[in-house]
Amino acid sequence: MLLILLTIAIIALATYLYLKPLIDNLFYSVPHEPKYIHSYIPFIGFGLKMFKDPIEFIRSFYLKYGKTFVIYLASKRWVYFYDEQTFLTKVLKSSDLSIDEFIIDASVYGLSVSRQCVENEDIQQITLKQYHQYLIGDELEILNKRVHDSLIESIKLDAKKGQDNQTRIVNLFDYFGEFMLYAGAEGLFGHSFVIEQRNATPNFYKLFQEFGDACRLSFLRIPFRSILHKSTFQSRLEFVKRFSSLKLNNGESKLIHAREELFRSDKYKHLFSQYDIGALQAGIIWAAVVNTAIMSCWSLVDLLLHPEALEAVKQELKENISSSSTLIYDKETLAKLKILESCINESMRHIFNTVSARQAKIDTIIECLDKTKVGLRKGDMLVYPTFLKHFDPNLFGPNPYEYQYDRFIKKPNEPKAPSVMLFGCGPHMCPGRFLAINEIKMLITVIIQHMDIEFVNMTEQDKDDYRKKLPYDYTKMISSGGPKKGYEHKFDIKYSYKNLDIE
């Protein structure tokens, strides 16, 4: 009897979730709504196809339905809107549309922090000001130096372990991902904090990965997640604890210092639990590293797959970093590495599932520059799919999927170099974008200067295939992904060090 009742309940729930979008369309529609594309899978909607390859999936809908259409995903309506000029000139300026509520929900559900500590308007304004104050100018150069020093320390520590001259095989993404985690942590939280994490158990990098997995499960509101993924959420709690009792004046950056003082100030401390503070600080390092580390690795993979690009970067480094006295982390030096930056932008253009989004605060109608109208319901997510622009043949030539390492360097016969939109737009454009690009430049520079790398499981056919399309894992959705499941071993490498004083 219990089994029958349970079966009936599951069928009823699935039926409700399937019919809900259709019922909502019947009772809550607004004028000028874009075409709604219904999925036969309840709740998940088109999630399975999105996980497989969101760029090609959305591109196929764009080619079939035009610049605007609606899909249902994880109980939310997503209005895809491929009209850059209207988005930039009208959507970003509309008081009826905002990203604030979405960011709040991402923190509440993703980090499991209390809503009161992130929806306070004073806190929002102060933290946004802190980002723009402490991630640019002289403070950025301090962060650059810390990141660079940490990368050098990591390879020296590893080189000392391997002085037996045995060939070592590692996974490129895990190996350099851990380097970047410690580098990002040192930049933000200081050298003493990193020393503690290097010597602590469980492993800091493994906890970082579990923290990210827990955030994704929570953000997507996967049913029964705390039961089915109990160990993942336990690891997230352990990771958060590493940040819950930070010691001030212990080498942390001005950004982290200011955040700690804000969270624990007499005026606002009632809003934050100890867990909230730890989770928000842990969220900073996750946001700083989760995309940067992966994109560093894919940029390196592309260089290794395209010898002409690697040689061009080596020549540029030779011209601009001519001696051991050159400060690689110096902003003027980093700014000169135009070919390397073009390579990075090209790799990110190829695989990064970039979008810019705003959420409707009320039922509203947008009048596009071409006089067409788009109706939005309260709560709709309006998404400008930047990645469609990144594969537009009108902007990137007849073969936009081809890797062209110097694509973003202005040519003599061109009015300007093409542009990409990798870090969002408007007032919520990623404030850490300058640090992110600098980190990638420094990691690749350090690798080229001090390491020889060779893929051990990648055949020539694999290389030819990956030059056409990298086996990128899109299932991460809210962050960058490494290789697709089953392809990880293809990115195992053997390596050795050179030009490195480890005394």
Model description:
The protein has 21 helices and 11 strands. The longest helix is centred in the middle third of the chain and has 32 residues, at 274-305. Helix 5 (100-111) crosses helix 10 (204-219). The chain has 503 residues and is α+β, with helices and mostly antiparallel strands. The chain has 2 domains: 1-91 and 360-389, no CATH class; 112-354 and 400-497, Cytochrome p450 (Orthogonal Bundle), CATH 1.10.630.10. The protein has helices spanning 2-28, 47-52, 54-65, 84-91, 100-111, 121-134, 137-161, 172-189, 191-199, 204-219, 225-228, 230-244, 254-263, 274-305, 307-320, 331-336, 338-351, 386-389, 393-396, 433-450, 460-468, and strands spanning 35-36, 68-73, 76-81, 97-98, 168-171, 356-360, 364-367, 373-376, 381-384, 451-455, 492-497. Pfam families: p450. Keywords: Heme, Iron, Lipid metabolism, Metal-binding, Monooxygenase, Oxidoreductase, Steroid metabolism. Belongs to the cytochrome P450 family. One of its GO terms (molecular function) is steroid hydroxylase activity.
Q: What is the CATH level 1 assignment of the largest domain? A: Mainly Alpha
Strand-residue fraction? 5-15%
Mean pLDDT equals 90
CATH topological fold name of the largest domain: Cytochrome p450
Low-confidence parts, pLDDT < 50 over ≥5 residues? none
The major beta sheet can be summarized as:
6 strands, mixed
